[in-house]
């Protein structure tokens, strides 16, 4: 109670005069800066490179900086310019749109032609948003049946031409393309272009291993080379040849161990999409004579297939909900999709290069000139991305003044509460206070966002570390300790106090 009362006295007195509040002593700014410097100079990271900028949003004064203008790989802090641009240019109410159209005519209960699905990148057809990945497909089947369509004589064609055919980011390591976070990008996307495999190890002698995919389909093939062992630990490797959907599961699984999941990617998202769509429609009772086809398989597709009419227009949830998943879960596919849809909306070309131009325009409005950073993918998976802490802070400052601030503030992970910060800073004044984007790739960590002091002063910060050989937890100890200190210090209008 005394602490709360003293804090109230602090705010009231500082707003009216220069008297030092009861229960507090004023300290020099350098005292706080030196305290922060000591933390970043931890010998555990004497081999690494820190880039740091901490500023007051209220006064613009720098509280602490270290290599703030040098270039660093940002990891998933790359999602900050990507998402800021998407929110600025598309707006919080933007919705992705998928069209179900057809060629040929409809007579009686038969579509005498092809069913054509035209997408512009909706990344949300998964159980992150819906009850299950195929929920929307089942709804579409019900809609066609209600229209009286029970048979399709032609093919199910996936039209992905609103995006280009470059399905992975620049510089993405090929050894990581089997993992969900490196899923291919496309204009038609189902289940974030990977499958979740749940492994249920046998518990009794006569039990067998169960592998349960969240999307069952003939599109991929699981090849099991698994040994069940009584001792030791589970060691499993899942891989596939580049461009293939034969998924090899190889290794040992400990009998009686807990269920676990692995999430391998699939290749050619469009073909996966229309294959599963056809399977769902057939399960619903719609007979389809043709095959699932990627439009790229059809020679002169645009000239040879004439679209007669649109049967269904499906809209995604609004962008503000989608960006919340992107930022809080750090979903790479969502981020890469944003860059391409930005290009599509601005120039009618859904490519990374066109989307990059839009990002550069928005960053220029924030005072960041093209050529002073390297924006090489939208998610931060590429090791060719480079940006400085000062540039990230400029974006964060720009969004603080944006008409979309409430949405931007809402989509950030919250320390100790949700997203990639859910387990961090618990039990401190930074808990439920810090809102920031994390970033992690090998030897790189990032954390950039906002924190309020105990006197409600708004602080913006960016922490980047490159070339470190420590664990992710070691870097968290450093950055989180700094934020916990800032959160507990009363800082008001360039004056610094401690109890």
Report on the structure:
It is a single chain. The chain has 499 residues and is of the alpha+beta class. It has three domains: 2-92 and 348-498, Beta-lactamase; 97-169 and 267-317, D-tyrosyl-trna(Tyr) Deacylase, Chain: A (3-Layer(bba) Sandwich), CATH 3.50.80; 195-262, no CATH class. Helix content is 29%, strand content 23%. The chain is built from twelve helices and 23 strands. It has helices at residues 2-16, 29-40, 79-90, 135-146, 269-283, 301-304, 319-329, 332-347, 352-365, 389-400, 405-411, 472-488; strands at residues 25-27, 49-56, 62-66, 97-102, 105-107, 110-112, 115-118, 151-152, 156-159, 197-200, 210-213, 221-229, 235-239, 246-254, 260-262, 287-288, 292-294, 309-315, 435-441, 444-452, 458-466, 491-492, 495-498. The strands form six sheets. The protein has a five-stranded antiparallel sheet, sandwiched between helices. Strand 20 and strand 21 form a beta hairpin. It is globular, with a radius of gyration of 26 Å. Mean pLDDT is 93; it is low at 8-20.
Task: Itemize the secondary structure elements and their pairings.
Layout lengths: L1 H15 L8 E3 L1 H12 L8 E8 L5 E5 L12 H12 L6 E6 L2 E3 L2 E3 L2 E4 L16 H12 L4 E2 L3 E4 L37 E4 L9 E4 L7 E9 L5 E5 L6 E9 L5 E3 L6 H15 L3 E2 L3 E3 L6 H4 L4 E7 L3 H11 L2 H16 L4 H14 L23 H12 L4 H7 L23 E7 L2 E9 L5 E9 L5 H17 L2 E2 L2 E4 L1
Parallel strand pairs: 6-8, 7-9, 8-16, 9-17, 12-14
Antiparallel strand pairs: 1-23, 2-3, 2-21, 4-7, 4-18, 5-6, 10-11, 10-15, 13-14, 19-20, 20-21, 22-23
Helix pairs in contact: 3-7, 3-8, 3-9, 7-8, 7-11, 8-9
